[in-house]
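Fold it.
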Amino acid sequence: MWTLSNIITNIKVQGGESRRYMLDINSRDIAKFVQELISTTISWDEFSMTEALQEAFVRLDQDISSSATPSPGSNLVNYESLEQALSGCCACVAHTDGDHLHVANTGDCRAVLGQLDNENNWVAVRLSNQHNAENLTECQRIKSEHPADEQMSVIKNNRLLGQLAPLRAFGDIMYKWPVKDLKNVINILSNIGASVLIQQSLIPPKYYTPPYLTARPDIVHHKLTAKDKFLILATDGLWDMMSSQNAVKLVGAANQILSNRKIGLAHKPKDSNVTTHLIRNALGDSSSGIKHSKLSTMLQLSPSISRNYRDDISVTVLYFDTPLNI
């Protein structure tokens, strides 16, 4: 069976196009956005980092959508842009300026601050709320934006319209575009050989009052102090397997070992990179510690079945310019 990716890949080969074309489109969008910002007159007294981050997220999502929109009055469409727009992506962004930390989050990623208290104990402080069905405030927000007769269908089986786990995301235009625009895409795909199943999957069940999905982020501001040592940014693949507190303890302990020569020689960590250390513990953790056989199995799962056992994991650890005091 042909999938949408198969069809689009075939078109790329036939047309001799490459990912460079997609990069050119994104580069032009970014350049245009920057030029608009430069031409905007605003004083520092009027500037809001919260508003700037929100605008950047929303504008990026709008650019993703507009680049995939078929040309008016024709069936001409950029298939690489369409592939990108039909895919979804979450984002968690941290911005630091002096002692000001802003975290912008869209989707089910998480930002966790690692603090060292007065008794040298590691404390985890969450600086973002994941946008999924466990977030009751987020569920209520979505339900409030749709009619009463959709209250049972808009969030079903802990997913948006019974399909999508993240309740906010970039792309995923099949949860944002009007029905007539999605039908236009279906007509275009039918002309290039997409299966009926692929075409039908573009319009979710009970899709009555779009948009159901947004990329607008929640913003959290935190004033950094000497207690704040690092920030962990990670996708839900990590947090599905590890608590915030455990992650902070692992990063903190790794830093303590690496910063103390005597301890380091006696307990040399397996990983010089702390993000690798987190992933190793997430995938290989067992009641008796890190189990190599489990870790090896989890890493060797084929793409066709891996999502049944683990999600993709991306981790970034940001260190602040404060002494560790250890």
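The chain has a mean pLDDT of 83.
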